[in-house]
Amino acid sequence: MTADLVYVVAGASLLLAIVLPDLLHRWAISAPMVLVGVGMLIGLTPLPDGLPLDPHANRAAIEHTTEVVVIVALMGVGLALDRPLVLRDRATWGTWSPTWRLLVIGMPVTIAVVAVLGWAAGLAPAVAILLGAALAPTDPVLASDVQVAGPQTGDRDVDEVDEVRFTLTSEAGLNDGLAFPFVYVAILLATEGAVSGWALEWVGFYVVAKVVIGVFAGALVGKALAYVAFRSSNRALRVAERGESLLALAALIASYGVGEVLGGYGFLSVFFCAISFRSAERSHDYHAAMHEVAERLERLLTLFVLLVLGIALTRGLLEALDWRGIAIGLALILVVRPAAGILALAPWPGRQHGETALTRHQRWAAAFFGVRGIGSLYYVAYAAGEDASLADDWLWSTIAFTVVASVLIHGILATPVMTWIEERTSHHR
Questions:
Q1: How many H helices and E strands in the chain?
Q2: Where does the record place the Cation/H+ exchanger transmembrane domain (predicted)?
Q3: pLDDT (tens digit, 9 = 90+) per residue, 340-379?
Q4: What is the CATH number of domain 59-304+331-427?
Q5: C-beta pairs of 59-65 under 8 Å, 24+ apart in sequence
């Protein structure tokens, strides 16, 4: 019965993934909002038991399903970014300056504030830190309404991009991997005890080594695949010439696998593989074809997960939710993330030449639209697999509530606010 129900849900998700974009594009309603709502309604029906809804009994399935969704999204995000980032060229780093600020200032501040709120609510220190780390990264999966649409190729100017959308897209591409060191703080605190026993290991290995390995592994895989696809002496290997876009799947699987095998963060490997591949033959239409494959697969997987999440919400996932979880979730969305984003993006005196600056309205939009989503579910499932004490019912309920609240609040406001920002920006050009 379980397999049959999964087929039914997967089929419904595929159908909705095909028809919803065109049905909803005129309204301030996103496909994730509809899928969660439909799932909740299904959960209220006398549906036979069998779907993997219990996060404790199905932790591994949740971890690996959400893991696949995130890496597919990261490949699509990396291919969508037109602005180059060359690790050896510091001039390109300045054009990503709002992204670095949100990562270096905004994300740690968000983690710290949410962790303190969790500790004040009575959580153990490790669980409170995990709550902050899981909810800190913005989501590359559910934020399509506020991200860049896709790679500009052909004869178009690939450097023309809306600053808010670029900032949110690049932030989402990077912070899913960069939140991992903070997740490991929770894991090490739960498994190893006192911070003094593992602080140096955490800085040297989990913060520095795993990040560096993940970045360079992904960049090398991306360069190697780009060379094969565009410049190989063997015509059969130059897949870009015949538009074989399934290379996107090979690239995301290979880069993630190489990054993880070498001991790095696979999420960073996938993202840097994508932007490294994107840097080759930047105007080639092949990038758009690869992005379309990743985007379609991401849409299907995302809607499947959201439909199951919606069913779980009305089948007991929120049983442990109380006013503390509601308050923390809403505070994160409405206060903590916007404040941390404004702090990170505030104008600095003596801005360096070549650094990108956002207008006041763009800063507010980039600070507010920190969409939470599938990555948060992944981090909780991953940490719970490392130590059972982190598999807290209240934590699962609070994370699920926050994700759904983000889907609703950001989904309703995304279209009108982004349209207003873009109209205002074009008016002042």
A1: 20, 0
A2: 15-420
A3: 999 999 887 655 555 667 888 888 988 998 888 899 999 9
A4: 1.20.1530.20
A5: 59/381, 59/384, 59/385, 59/391, 60/381, 60/385, 62/377, 62/378, 62/381, 63/378, 63/381, 63/382, 63/385, 65/301, 65/305
Task: State how far the Cα of 314 lies from the Cα of 208, in Å rounded to an integer.
Answer: 42
- Name the residue ranges covered by the structural domains of the chain: 59-304+331-427
C-alpha R_g of the chain: 21
DSSP secondary structure string for all residues of 135-157: HSS--TTT-GGGS--S---TTS-
AA identity, residue 301: L
pLDDT value, residue 332:
96
CA pair distance 291, 358, nearest whole angstrom: 27
Neighbour count for residue 42 (Cβ, 10 Å) = 19
Question: From CA 252, how far away is CA 230, in angstroms rounded?
Answer: 18
The residues, any chain, with a CB within 8 Å of residue 415's CB and separated by 6 or more, are 27, 28, 145
pTM for the complete prediction? Answer: 0.89
Average pLDDT over the chain reads: 85
Mapped onto helix, strand or coil, the DSSP state of residue 405 is: helix
Compute φ and ψ for 234, nearest 5 degrees. -90, 115
Distance from the Cα of residue 261 to its chain's centroid: 22
The answer to whether the CB of 253 falls within 8 A of the CB of 270 is no
Q: What is the dihedral of CA 383, 389, 395, 396, to 10 degrees?
A: 70
Is 372 within 8 Å of 133 (Cβ atoms)? no
Collect all residues with Cβ–Cβ distance below 8 Å to 161 and sequence separation of at least 6.
82, 83, 148, 152
CA distance linking residue 312 with residue 300, whole number of Å: 18
Q: Name the residue among 77, 81, 183 with its Cα closest to residue 137.
A: 183
